[in-house]
């Protein structure tokens, strides 16, 4: 009597990708510590922000005020805690139970896992459906993007931005997802800058998603008041608007328009016309994002909104620019799909801009004792990120109009989204089940 063979366990592409991302992230975190702790420049900056976060976690555990906390850095001087109370409660209270070495390794490994999730989601949005190709590309791109300058600085300082990017990107897997807005709201409750995406939802008339984002944001604020009422009142009562607590806005790593203007005008005092200019840039950037959405390219709208937020924020440190990573991946896939040489060259140039710290190579100071007296070419080098962001917003509408023909709204008001998918001879059951 013969017996039928027993099928062994099958692992879907998500399980395989998750395991590969976890192992790769841990290896990269260990490698980053090994490389940067042996570099005379970066070793002085290693865990500079994470130490403040760990102190904030300890402060919460001790029942003291978060906003009386000041950590003295040998390099940067007094460093206060900058984020809402909820961020310290969720992330830094448990992390503060570990010694600094273990905490930095855990924090960076999990940050890189979040980057791997960002890569996986972006590949899905770009139309990669072959499961094997998607797993391999996720690991390869995780390794490559880990050495982009925004990610390197994030790992060196021990920053939080990768988690915010992941939360926001989860909302843009589908233009009209049922729960769209929750990720944006939670991210904004952890750090207010993602509120720019609520503006994008409003401009594209996705009222339900905008309402969900606002309610999720208010929910995080409410939880903060329930757990740390005094600190929440201090933060949301006005401290949130004090951008000067983040450091000198004219410091070269501040790659926002405000940072660029401060360096050009040699002052960190906001003039009224600064606000008018930033308002115009915000409106124009959201116009570009809305144009992309109406042409069926919601992901490009998300990217335009992200760049707009980075430009108009008073402080956008280099590590804040992790939001360009999904755009670069998407453009690389587009260039391959369409055999678009121009897009491939543009993506390569973006990779150079966001990999090489050019201002340091030419001898421009990172944190000057006073605003720097720079020549015109030096001003451009010192503000490569905002210059690149402005160029993308200026050239973006021309490229979108050329490559995305107008689409007509459905009877319910939704706009069909155009997705470029690499042709496949066949698609497996697992592929069809994968989301974004």
TrEMBL record:
<dbReference type="GO" id="GO:0005886">
    <property type="term" value="C:plasma membrane"/>
</dbReference>
<feature type="transmembrane region" description="Helical">
    <location>
        <begin position="179"/>
        <end position="203"/>
    </location>
</feature>
<feature type="transmembrane region" description="Helical">
    <location>
        <begin position="321"/>
        <end position="336"/>
    </location>
</feature>
<keyword id="KW-1003">Cell membrane</keyword>
<keyword id="KW-0812">Transmembrane</keyword>
<feature type="transmembrane region" description="Helical">
    <location>
        <begin position="133"/>
        <end position="149"/>
    </location>
</feature>
<dbReference type="InterPro" id="IPR018584">
    <property type="entry name" value="GT87"/>
</dbReference>
<feature type="transmembrane region" description="Helical">
    <location>
        <begin position="15"/>
        <end position="37"/>
    </location>
</feature>
<comment type="similarity">
    <text>Belongs to the glycosyltransferase 87 family.</text>
</comment>
<keyword id="KW-0328">Glycosyltransferase</keyword>
<dbReference type="Pfam" id="PF09594">
    <property type="entry name" value="GT87"/>
</dbReference>
<protein>
    <submittedName>
        <fullName>Alpha-1,2-mannosyltransferase</fullName>
    </submittedName>
</protein>
<feature type="transmembrane region" description="Helical">
    <location>
        <begin position="270"/>
        <end position="292"/>
    </location>
</feature>
<keyword id="KW-0472">Membrane</keyword>
<feature type="transmembrane region" description="Helical">
    <location>
        <begin position="343"/>
        <end position="364"/>
    </location>
</feature>
<feature type="transmembrane region" description="Helical">
    <location>
        <begin position="81"/>
        <end position="100"/>
    </location>
</feature>
<keyword id="KW-0808">Transferase</keyword>
<dbReference type="GO" id="GO:0016758">
    <property type="term" value="F:hexosyltransferase activity"/>
</dbReference>
<keyword id="KW-1133">Transmembrane helix</keyword>
<feature type="transmembrane region" description="Helical">
    <location>
        <begin position="299"/>
        <end position="315"/>
    </location>
</feature>
<feature type="transmembrane region" description="Helical">
    <location>
        <begin position="106"/>
        <end position="126"/>
    </location>
</feature>
<feature type="transmembrane region" description="Helical">
    <location>
        <begin position="209"/>
        <end position="227"/>
    </location>
</feature>
<feature type="transmembrane region" description="Helical">
    <location>
        <begin position="376"/>
        <end position="400"/>
    </location>
</feature>
